Amino acid sequence: MSFLSKFLPKKKPVEIKNNIPKEKNSIKKTFAVYCHAHHGTTGDKLCPKCTALLATVMTRMNRCRYGITKPICDRCEFTAQCFGERQAREFLTIMNSNRGRMYLKHPIMSIKHKFLSMGVDYARYEQQKKRDDKAKAKEKAAKGRSKEQKEKK
Ligand SMILES: [Zn+2]
Description:
By secondary structure, the chain is mainly α. It contains 6 helices and no strands. Helix 1 packs antiparallel against helix 2 (48-62) and helix 1 packs across helix 5. The longest helix is centred in the C-terminal third of the chain and has 46 residues, at 107-152. The protein starts with 19 loop residues before the first helix and ends with a helix. The structure holds zinc ion (ZN). Zinc ion is lined by residues 35, 39, 46-47, 49-50. Residues 127-153 are annotated as: Disordered. It comes from Selenomonas bovis.
């Protein structure tokens, strides 16, 4: 060990965060807020339909193809494959319909969720940009090649 390394901050091992428990909690709360508002339920109780849908979502989350590195469900491109089309639609309706209400009831959680989805959007944007850049570079290279060939003739 060098003398200096004693004073340098230790490198933290990269840890993969398991976001599933947090996300489950957030989804449960969102369902409760939605069900209370739309189906007249109160407290911890949800109507049978929401209870069933929530149960499906919870079990599917455990089997997420991404494992614990999963993105949040309402931003995942596999929601329909994962939950089934009808249930995915109902799930997304619930998740999207009461953003405003969630901000009032659980502001900090909502903001965190918003940041998470922004992160997902940003990652997607970056991926798309990379793909676009690659395509452009290819195009350019192809053009350059055809130019060279023309010049040779
Ligand atoms: Zn309900």
